[in-house]
Amino acid sequence: MQYASRLGRLGTETAFAVSADAINWANKGHKVYPFHLGDINLPTPSNIQEAAMKHMHDGKTGYCPAEGIPELRDALSQDVGQRRGVNYTAENVAIHPGGKPTIWKFISAVMNRGDEVLYPNPGYPIYESQIEYQGGVAIPYIYHETDSGFAIDIDQLKAGISRKTRALIYNNYQNPLSAASSQEEMEALAQIAIEHDLWVLSDDAYFEIRYVDEPPNSIVSFPGMRERTAILYTFSKKYAMTGWRVGGTIGPKKLIHHISRINVNDESCTNHFLQWAMIDALTGDDSGTRYILSKLKNRRDAAVECLNAIEGIRVPTPESTFYLFPNVTAVLDRKDIPDVEQFRKKALVETGVSFCTRDHFGRSLPGEKDHFIRLAYSGIGTDVIREGLDKFKDWIES
Predict the structure, then answer these.
(1) How far apart are CA 226 and CA 397, in angstroms?
(2) Using one digit for the tens of pLDDT, what is the confidence trace for 157-195?
(3) Fewest CB atoms within 10 Å of the CB: 134, 206, 286, 371?
(4) Are 213 and 303 within one domain?
(5) What is the CATH number of the domain that holds 385?
(6) What region, left, alpha or beta, does residue 287 occupy, with left being phi > 0 and alpha being psi -120 to 50 degrees?
(7) How does the average pLDDT of the chain come out, rounded?
(8) Same domain for 147 and 275?
(9) 373 - beta bridge partners?
(10) DSSP 378
(11) Out of 134-143, 253-262, 299-308, 334-343, which region has the weakest mean confidence (pLDDT)?
């Protein structure tokens, strides 16, 4: 018997492979400092937990509409639209088991075999995986380092567009770079999408994980973008509920209709009582989410301070997400380590500090010379961050 050849094109979320190394090392009796996985070791707000239990006990445990219950679709359309200055209704929303399903369902709905899709690299690895698995051609666009973080290379992105280009995947407040687009950068992307008649997937997973007073920006807010943009929404980050698996797609009605048809063929529906609980999340007490954000900000500040104290590392303070992406080229040269993967493994053994590398976020591209690592501070407390990165510093500077 044979397996489908397309399985050879299916990638993975390689941060989970790093987790396996960390678990194996911990199982041997060593302390591990888990900077590798963007999980959140903070509790889901109690009002959401209580709402989920209530709706489960109230019998919301059967099938429900494939596109999601109307009440949640309406609540999410209002919340997402209001925060982005765009008018949506329930017909613009489809609910899924998490945010990630939006990626493959969007690609399934807009891309034919052989079409090209622009995606960020480094970026969330499932973009590349799903484009290629479904028979498309993944065209990477890159970022360059700036004094304040990372910016999209707009000229390089434009050069990657051809008559076969169908879509642009865009992740503002970006994983793994924590890059936040300027208004000018976002406007340039919107103009490109309109000029070349491209679909846009706006991955807004970290839209509200921000540590500044200014409201977040969305590409869907620009004229001409609402009708061509699908928003990936997830409850996982803002509400510290990565394991609950509830999210959605917000976009043009016809696109949502087709995505809902995919829902019927895939999961039938998303967990019924959790959908009711998400209404409470969107409309209820927000003190829990403010607490989560304050804890993440404290962790960010501690991690940035510790990393900037290490000779050969400089990290700007990002305004969003819960990731840091330092350039460690000088560190590898200092320690005479030839590649960043070997550096990752040696750091785990020598210090217990576990992190991902640039290579876990899309294939390295020709011409890349610098080495980067990604540290997530969402699953590790402030005191433990300082303890682990102090050991990391001592090892690097020894």
Answers:
(1) 51
(2) 999 999 999 999 999 999 999 999 999 999 999 999 999
(3) 286
(4) no
(5) 3.90.1150.10
(6) alpha
(7) 93
(8) yes
(9) 357
(10) T
(11) 334-343
SS3 content of the chain, % helix, strand, coil (to 5): 45, 15, 40
Contact criterion met (CB below 8 Å) for 319 and 367: no
Cα angle for residues 19, 306, 339 (degrees, 5° grid): 50
- For residues 29 and 9, give the distance between their C-alpha atoms in angstroms, rounded to a whole number: 37
Average pLDDT over residues 244-253: 95
End-to-end CA distance of the chain: 55
Is the pTM for the entire model greater than 0.85? yes
Residue 261 has a pLDDT of 93
Residue 4 has pLDDT above 80, yes or no: no
CA distance 150 to 373: 14
User: Could you tell me what percent of the chain has a pLDDT over 70?
Assistant: 100
Q: Where are the alpha helices (DSSP H) in 171-286?
A: 183-195, 253-266, 272-283
Question: Are residues 82 and 107 both part of a single domain?
Answer: yes
Tell me the CA distances in angstroms from 220 to 200, 272, 278, one per residue in order. Answer: 9, 29, 23
Residues 163 and 255 grouped into a single domain? yes
Cα distance between residue 173 and residue 9, in whole Å: 28
**Class of residue 330 by CB neighbours under 10 A (exposed 0-12, middle 13-18, buried 19+):** middle
Instruction: Determine which helix (DSSP H) or strand (DSSP E) holds 201, and give its type and residue range.
Output: strand 199-203
Alpha helices by DSSP H, listed for 160-252, are 183-195
Q: Which range marks the domain in which residue 138 is found?
A: 51-283
Q: Which two tokens stand for residue 167?
A: 């879509």
List the CATH number of the domain containing 135: 3.40.640.10
The answer to whether residues 222 and 340 belong to one domain is no
- The residues, ordered by sequence, that sit 6+ positions from 366 with a Cβ below 8 Å of its Cβ are none
Whether residue 115 is found in the same domain as residue 258: yes
pLDDT tens-place string over residues 62-81: 999 989 999 999 999 999 99
Q: In whole angstroms, how far apart are CA 278 and each of 51, 72, 395?
A: 8, 7, 45
C-beta separation of 78 from 224 below 8 A? no
What pLDDT is attached to residue 3?
82
